[in-house]
Amino acid sequence: MPVKFEIEQDFIAEQNKAKSEWLAEDFEYLGRKLLRQNIDIETHVERASGLKIAVPSWGVGTGGTRFARFPGPGEPRGIYEKLEDCSTINRLARSTPAVSLHIPWDKPDDPANLLATATEYGLSFDAMNSNTFQDQPGQKESYKFGSLTHANAAVRKQAIEHNIECIEIGQKIGSKALTVWVGDGSNFAGQSNFRKALERYLESMREIYAAIPADWQLFIEHKLFEPAFYSSVVSDWGTNYYCARELGDRAACLVDLGHHAPNVNIEQIVSRLIQFQKLGGFHFNDSKYGDDDLDSGSVRPFQLFLIFNELVDAELSGVPRFDPCYMLDQSHNVTDPIESLMTSSVEVLRAYIQASLVDRAKLAEAQENGDPIAALRTLKEAFTTDVAPILAAARQRSGGAIDPVGVYRASGYRQQKAKERPAQMGISAGIV
Ligand code: AFD
Ligand code: MN
Ligand code: MN
Fold first, then answer.
1. Cα–Cα dist 102/116, whole Å
2. Environment class of residue 123 by beta-carbon count within 10 Å: exposed (0-12), middle (13-18) or buried (19+)?
3. Distance, CA of 153 to CA of 20 (rounded, Å)
4. Which residues of 1-40 are buried (b: 16+ CB within 10 A; e: fewer)?
5. What is the pTM of this model?
6. Please, are residues 316 and 307 in contact by the beta-carbon 8 Å criterion?
7. Number of neighbours of residue 276 by Cβ within 10 angstroms
8. Percent of the chain whose pLDDT exceeds 70
9. Widest CA span of the chain, in angstroms?
10. How crowded is residue 183: how many other Cβ atoms within 10 Å of its Cβ?
11. Ligand 1 atom 5: residue of nearest CA
12. Smaller CB count within 10 Å for the chain: N or C?
């Protein structure tokens, strides 16, 4: 087999040279500025290196809408090529060492071999994602009218077994969680009985929960609408919380940023789940209208900052059982997925570091004294701080790129992959 192109460490170091002078200058200036506020910049470089975000296996292929998909050149044709792209993302941006697998889209023939390859790339596996929202070839029962909540017990059984299979595959590749998102719901008023559907959901989820290993977690992802357009069974964070509590300690809620009604205060939802000790993790993305799956931080960076403000507050105040998993869940329809995922991981880190800069004593004082302007100014002071030098220094020190997208483009990676991976019809899951 011909040697596959990869971006060498030497190339990254060489490219970094051109940028390192300005980085040193900006870093020094920011360091002095932060010191005036009694903040040690090095602490934040360390924090930036410490936060890890998983990438979705389905995110490295070109996505699409329900109207069309426009495949890009050199798309990964299977899970091994997807891992290769995930490794490139991590090599340049240094914050995404784990991959979240979708089954059956990326079902490995040989899990041990997949694990060995991932390990070679320095990657591990994050939460497993089951798929009972579409029918697979040869499948006995159809999910057209639901899966875990279907009126027919045989369909529910098939959906439960699929989730258990995901756990089994996950155990072989070192995963420690299963994320369940169902498309179940209704398109017409009266089509389904709300109470019965939720009861069946819980009944099915209890069986899945029973198969969750002791050191695993079960994440439940709620979603307001789509593909069901009248009602979703697990529609909102309240339903999600109720289900997670009914199931037990190892069940927790997963917040996908695009799964709420427009203008909902997501940071408050996050705070509630933290307080109730049921925040399992995130699917980061951004949106303007619905579940748009746009790149994190591309539409509402202040919202992302406010979410991280809650997370950092919980971390620093030592809320019990607070240990959320961070994942990206995006669909890249018009961009190179590698560029989008690198940029998004940087945006998540940016929000985290900005939130880490919030003067919490000052904020608490403003809150206690009924001074909303002082409170907002405190938040804005952190939000408007340009933390780019902190993020770039963290990447550079761990061998990554000062400018990940710049280095990626200069390397010609995509062009090389276009040669190595001739286009195939129907290779991707397509519309995600
Ligand atoms: C859905 C959910 C879920 C799922 C994905 C599939 O966000 O995480 O895995 O889309 O593309 O909207
Ligand atoms: Mn999601
Ligand atoms: Mn989604």
1. 18
2. buried
3. 62
4. eeeebebeeeebeebbeebbeebeebbeebbeebeeeebe
5. 0.97
6. no
7. 15
8. 98
9. 69
10. 17
11. 432
12. N
**Is the predicted pLDDT of residue 425 greater than 80, yes or no?**
no
Query: Which of 181, 330, 332 best tests ligand 1's pocket when mutated (most atoms within 8 Å of CB)?
Result: 181
- DSSP one-letter code for 60: G
125 and 101 Cβ atoms separated by less than 8 Å: yes
CA distance 354 to 308: 8
Name the average pLDDT for the chain.
Answer: 97
pLDDT surpasses 60 at 1: no
DSSP state of 411: H
pLDDT tens track for 91-127: 999 999 999 999 999 999 999 999 999 999 999 999 9
d(C-alpha 201, C-alpha 50), whole Å: 37
CB distance 57 to ligand 1 below 6 Å: no
> Which stretches within 291-412 are classed as H helix?
301-316, 337-356, 360-368, 372-383, 388-397, 404-411
Ligand 3 centroid, distance to 129 Cα (angstroms): 12
**Residue type at position 394:** A
Alpha-carbon gap, residue 286 to 295, rounded angstroms:
6
Chain centre distance of CA 390: 22
